[in-house]
């Protein structure tokens, strides 16, 4: 659990360094959680953070996990509508390497 929080902090610091502003951390709904919600330029970005010191972190996002993320995004937007662009990003952290996948398509997984 603590390791996951460390990865989220690394991801948040990275996002801030590229000019994003934090809106919410660990947004929860009945189906799960969105790790980070940020504004980058005028785009509302939902961010899934995956980290691992051993495996490829992107492989840890299962179709079920993706479905839960989408459900949480829909719930968030029903509570706080956004008129601008919206996207789903995945930040993968493996040891000291950060990979930022922008605008992840649902069929990527």
Which secondary structure elements does this structure contain, and how are they paired or packed?
Blueprint: H1 2-17, E1 21-29, E2 32-40, E3 43-51, H2 63-79, E4 86-94, E5 97-101
Parallel strand pairs: 3-4
Antiparallel strand pairs: 1-2, 2-3, 4-5
Fold and architecture overview:
The chain is α+β, with helices and mostly antiparallel strands. Helix content is 30%, strand content 38%. The protein has 2 helices and 5 strands; from the N terminus they run αβββαββ. The chain has helices spanning 2-17, 63-79; strands at residues 21-29, 32-40, 43-51, 86-94, 97-101. A 5-stranded mixed sheet has the order 1-2-3-4-5. It starts with a helix and ends in an 8-residue tail after the last strand. The mean pLDDT is 87.
- How many separate helices? 2
Question: Biggest β-sheet, characterized?
Answer: 5 strands, mixed
Strand content: 35-45%
Derived from helix and strand composition plus strand pairing, the structural class reads alpha+beta
**Strands, total number:** 5
First CA to last CA: what distance? 24 Å
What is the approximate shape? globular
Strand ordering within the main sheet: 1-2-3-4-5
Average pLDDT across residues? 87
**Radius of gyration, Cα only, in angstroms?**
13 Å
Low-confidence stretches: none
Helix content: 25-40%
Brief characterization of the structure:
With 109 residues, this protein is α+β, with helices and mostly antiparallel strands.
């Amino acid at each position: 659990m603590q390791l996951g929080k460390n990865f989220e902090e690394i991801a948040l610091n990275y996002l801030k360094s590229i000019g994003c502003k934090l809106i919410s951390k660990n947004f929860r709904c009945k189906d799960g959680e969105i790790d980070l919600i940020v504004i980058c330029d005028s785009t509302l970005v939902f961010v899934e953070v995956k980290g691992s010191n051993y495996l490829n972190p992107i492989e840890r996002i299962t179709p079920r996990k993706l479905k839960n993320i989408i459900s949480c995004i829909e719930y968030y937007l029903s509570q706080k509508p956004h008129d601008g662009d919206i996207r789903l990003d995945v930040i993968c952290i493996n040891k000291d390497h950060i990979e930022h996948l922008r605008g992840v398509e649902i069929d990527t997984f």
